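ok trying again, last paste got cut off:
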Amino acid sequence: MSLSRLSGVLAAPLAAALMLAGCTGRMFGLGTGDAETVHAASSRQLVVGDEPFAVNAAVAVLAQGGNAVDAATTMFFALSVTYPVAAGPGGGGICIARSASGTLGEFDFLPRAAARGGAYAVPMAVRGFFDMQKQMGSLPWQRTVSPAEALADAGFPMSQALAARLAGTEGIIRLDAALAEEFLDESGQLKKPGAILSNRALARTLSVIRQDGADGFASKIGGSLIAYADKQGGALGAEDFVAARTRQVAPARRTLGGMTVAYPATGTGAGAFSAALLSRVAGSTPANASANALAAARQARAGGGGATSPADFGSTGFVVVDDTGGAVACAVTLNGSFGAGRTAAGT
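nice, full thing came through this time. structure:
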């Protein structure tokens, strides 16, 4: 697994996932990928994501009786395997979840600075999805992680979506032996769509997460990450994993087009981005809505230090709706393609 980058990106906007909640039950999400896979498992279920194998894993969980939170958790861990340029245990994110009864909650687990500083962010994603799934999921935790573990261990054909996102990352991949082994061919070029990829070290990490949850990840994998960061001049410490906690707050809300929009609360780049976007879009006509949304994104990025931030935030978004009225919209980030572009040995 790749460590997340810590830089000015933490102050910059994370592309926010927005959920519409109300009596109509309608919902939409904003992802950061160029190509989205949409799957309607039934007339009342919906899964949207950037990578098809991860979408299929989430669909399967819904078919097995899981709810939206179960499927979103499954989607994240599957993306960690099939779309690791933008999602992984070393990163973090924000989710807004709506229960079948209509209760809304925000789970904020963005990567954060280590207590002693350094170049690597504290991994928050496992803790965030663990806390959300335990609180709002309906399946045993193990069932939400096992599909990703199987993909990493048995292998999967590279999707067109992953291949497109990998374009231009060769310079990052070549600097890390584990990334190079997985994604480069014998000539040192990026593998082509359809090439079989596997990552058994990540499968072992996912096995720990499946069996022991967030606490097991901190105690059994955290030591390897700390040791690697120390060798690289980082400053991760055991105290950072102990202090890693999901921030649970009520999301911000506003009315838009007769519906209630729930979006990340203030205090995060995602909240600032969402507020700016909604303010721009609120008075838009269909003809200029897209232009106004793009202007809001550029404004938020510039306000967050866009000049020094990477061209690719290493982020992706996804949405799940189940047939009980539950829904989840998430945006996750590594703060750059493959995060810091460094993989701790054995993970």
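cool. The longest strand covers residues 92-98. The two ends are 5 Å apart (CA to CA).
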